[in-house]
Amino acid sequence: MDSNRLDERHVMVRDQMEKRGIRNPWLLQALLDIPRHLFVPPEVRDKAYEDRPLPIGRQQTISQPYIVASMIELIEPHAGQRVLEVGVGSGYSAAVLSRLVGRVLGVEREGSFLPEVQKRLAALGLANVHLKEGDGTLGWAEESPFDAVLVTAAAPRIPPTLLTQLKVGGVMVIPVGPKEGQKLVRVVKRSESHILEKELYGVKFVPLIGAEGWPD
Ligand code: SAH
Q1: 24 within domain boundaries
Q2: 12 in a domain, yes or no?
Q3: Which of 74, 85, 148, 163 is deepest in the core (most CB within 10 A)?
Q4: Does 84 map to a domain?
Q5: CATH code: domain of residue 179
Q6: How many CA atoms lie within 13 A of 106 on its CB side?
Q7: How sure is the predictor about 3, in pLDDT bands with cuts at 50, 70 and 90?
Q8: Which of 152, 161, 210 lies closest to 182 in space, CA to CA?
Q9: Taking residues 75-92, what's their average pLDDT?
Q10: Average per-residue pLDDT in the chain?
Q11: 177 pocket-lining for ligand 1 (C-beta < 6 Å)
Q12: pLDDT band at 9 (very low <50, low <70, confident <90, very high)
């Protein structure tokens, strides 16, 4: 038996990523390298490579693998970049991203997730991810500005503070819309005053709860 489940990741990458147009070769390699089954609770471990989101406890979910890959591809990750992730959850998307950029700064509202995430990242030798508990709708001022911002919870509108913490030329990918279903939006900060927004496709994320998100 393949205890590292590399075979399952090869099938996932071929059927869920390549066939749907994910092309970034470093991203595809990161998806092969990161053992997603170690980021989900033991009772759903056998489903870790299926084409769907999974429960991770506290009414939160780890996103469908394709959505993680697509969102990461859309921020156009490059070596050396500083990227903010809002909604760390299981830590899976942060782990994949950490293979592609210089530094991942992750904010998670549910602090009880973080010790386990820290352990997983350390066990995989991913030392360029820095996490804190807090309201990610307010970003992480001390670590800003960012080359890119990835928001993996559903916002009622684009949080203005996240835009101010994005560099000029930077990209944000964020699900925006009502709690029942959202549009994935790709935002490019052309200049301090020129923000370009493009709606991509329909998604359904758990709510982004905070000062510039949904009320608690
Ligand atoms: N990227 C995650 C999926 C996260 S699910 C993964 O790969 O597993 C969305 C997460 O956003 C949840 O963990 C939820 O607690 C968190 N969240 C919701 N509102 C938040 C906020 N204002 N700031 C930071 N995290 C938030």
Answers
A1: no
A2: no
A3: 85
A4: yes
A5: 3.40.50.150
A6: 28
A7: confident
A8: 152
A9: 98
A10: 97
A11: no
A12: very high
**Mean pLDDT value across residues 147-156:** 98
* Pocket flag, ligand 1, residue 147 (CB < 6 Å): no
Mind listing the pLDDT tens digit for each residue in 104-139?
A: 999 999 999 999 999 999 999 999 999 999 999 999
List 60's β-bridge partners, or say none: 57
Structural domain count, the chain: 1
Single-letter code of the amino acid located at 195: I
* Catalytic position from the list 3, 63, 98, 193: 63
Tell the residue nearest (CA) to atom 23 of ligand 1. Answer: 136
| 79 falls within a domain | yes
Residue 157 is given by DSSP the state S
Among this protein's residues, is 193 annotated catalytic? no
- Domain of residue 76, residue span: 56-203
Q: Strands 54-57 and 60-62, how do they pair?
A: antiparallel
The pLDDT, as a whole number, for residue 106 is 98
d(CA 145, CA 101): 15
From residue 115, alpha-carbon distances to 33, 54, 65, 147, 149 in Å are 22, 20, 23, 26, 23
CA 77 to chain centre: 12
CB atoms within 10 A of CB 26: 14
Counting every residue written for the chain, the total comes to 216
Q: In a 3-state reduction of DSSP, which class is residue 198?
A: strand
How far is ligand 1, taken at its centre, from the CA of residue 206, in Å? 8
Calpha distance 146→12 (Å, rounded)? 30
Global model pTM greater than 0.90: yes
